[in-house]
Design brief:
The structure holds 2 protein chains of 2 kinds.
Chain A lengths: L1 H10 L1 H24 L2 E5 L4 E5 L1 E3 L2 E5 H5 L5 E5 L3 E6 L2 E6 L4 E4 L2 E4 L5 E3 L2 E5 L3 H9 L3 E4 L4 E4 L6 E6 L5 E6 L6 E5 L2 E6 L11 E3 L5 E9 L2 E8 L3 E6 L4 E6 L4 H10 L3 H4 L13 E4 L4 H4 L8 E6 L16 H18 L3 E4 L9 H11 L3 E7 L6 E6 L22 H17 L4 E6 L11 E6 L12 H17 L9
Helix pairs in contact in A: 8-11, 10-11
Chain B lengths: L3 H40 L8 E10 L4 E10 L4 H16 L14 E7 L3 E6 L1 H5 L5 H18 L5 E6 L17 E2 H9 L1
Parallel strand pairs in B: 4-5
Antiparallel strand pairs in B: 1-2, 3-4, 5-6
Helix pairs in contact in B: 2-4
The chains are: A alpha+beta, B alpha+beta.
Chain lengths: ~500, ~190
Amino acid sequence: MPSTTTNRALTSPITTRVLVVLLTSVALLSAANSADEKHISVYSPVAIYSLPVLERAGHEYVGLLELLEPLGRVSSESDGRRLRLRYNALEAEFAAGKTKAKIHGRDFAFTVPFLIENSRGLVPLSSLGALLPRFLGTAVNFRESARRLFIGDVGVQISFQLDAGTPPHLSLNFSAPVNPTISTEPGKLRMIFKRDPVVSPGSQSISFASKVITQASYSEDNGDAELDVIANEPLMANFSNNRKSIIVSAVEPGVVANGAQSTASQNPAAQNPGAQNSGPQSPGTPAQPASTPTTNAAIAVHRPLAVIDPAHGGDERGAALTNTLAEKDVTLGFARLLRHELELRGFSVILLRDGDITLTLDQRAAAANVARAGIYISLHADSLGRGARVYTSLLPVEGTSNGAFHAWNSAQASALPVSKIVSSAIVAAIRKQEFSVQAFPASLRPLNNVFMPAVAVELAPGPNGIADLTSANYQQRVAAAIADGVSSVRDRLGVQP
Amino acid sequence: MIPRHLLIGVAALLLLVVSMGIYLRHMRREAKKLELPAASLSAVAPPASGPTETVALYVADDAAGALRAHSAQIPLPGGRQQRAEELLRALLRIYQQPGAAHPLSPDADIRSIYLIDPGAAVIDLNAAFTDQHRSGILSEQLTVNSLVETLAVNVPGIQRVNILVEGKVRDTLAGHADLSDSFDVLPLEQARNQ
């Protein structure tokens, strides 16, 4: 019978071996491809992102539109041979296969030809260091061999401090909060910084006068920075100082076997070396026990989810902040900064729009509700007043629970007490930055339609007036304050029962 | 050969069409003449006259981000609905003065106010009120609060207010403040007293 023949063929030892070999080859090939995929990391005050690198005729290229889009307003048009690009108010023209281009009326020379593929402009990596300052008007530092691009003064510095006590521990102090992927292997603790603009400590390798922790080495490759701590004993790491410090120390005897699971439960990143961000950490929380099968078998990842909603977008421009500046553009840049700040503090973040698209108020509320986020933050901007304003819904607080069902127009009512706590925390954090800030109730959609804690933050001009609305430094400070405020009440966040 | 009576018939019909066209044009001109005096009358409608009353107007101040109670002497008619309309028009005149702390368009107007028992009021704004309103959460919310609170404090019994634009429900005032639902007076008063 045909079916019997097929079953026999499938179960015969030779066929099974061939299948196993084939499947293993495919798995290995795909893993190798994934590992070999080249990318470039871009760090700027406005956004931190990673882009794929393409190889053409022995040279490395990156998409020009993708590179500029997170940094400002970009549009382009191409007929296949020429590409015209507009970045904010600056115009540029490129020709396929040519090394010459015009940027804002001035000539620019590429090191190797510019390419156009399917109306998409590809710019050689070797020219980025010279090209980007012409668009951005600011200094850039491009480490071409490591494919890491720093725009402006965003680098995070590292310093080391060894305490040779018993047990010895090494403090890695960073100039800003960091969120590395941490893993261990015998004699080594490895930290990979994928989204942190960590820069070299000066020397690639530092030796310590300790019999346990002997050396730290820094390297950069393929858009990532890596910091390895070498030791003669198993190591573990703790975050402290609001993630600005990582304390590396030897694992005390007995901890690996008995304590690994409990410490790992507080550090999801330790369980998932592939994850970019680890979960919430309190100062001194063990971040990395030695890897054992026990720890790898552990514990569900818990990261609070924040939904950031840059208001307006697409056809809906929002307020005209100046003759040329629309509210929708300010909210998008501000939202990207806030996303980064929240991620640094261990939040997972959903940005409701990461481009100039039109979303209705109902679509925004529905997206936040479906995500069952811990916190919803709507971002607005206004040229009126100074500093920032934090809004909660004007709805009356609901006294009793309606169970799983919420009236659409008053869905926020049950979460309003927590929303007000979040608002107060954000106001306090912004005041610490010495910016003017006020809290108001407002009848605002989609704030009324989301059933998790929700606030709206309206960015107003800072000490330098309206120019602050587009100042990356000002936005960065306000975004960091908002993230601090939200992070300080993270235990209260979540969908109300 | 076309019969003579058919030619006369067609000619008569053509003459009728042309004369009807001329008459239609004439009637349109007459209609325009009739519309102009009506518009003029509405623009110069005098405020209510009679004995004045002291009322509390809640006036928005953009710089302070708050409402300020402003005592005013205005003539108020006897009916609740007319009284409500005069109150809000008096408020509007403050916002339309040069250098107002919360400027509104000179063309902004209250078309009508409907008082519906029990405790509901509907304010119908004209299109210029919203189309030319400054866009921003604070500015829009101050306008709403000012209208609702002035009405609630001076016209007893009002507990909630709906705002329409040209007789229709509109999503927002100028992109932010939600007009799709009614405003409860109590939370607004609580917010003002905090």
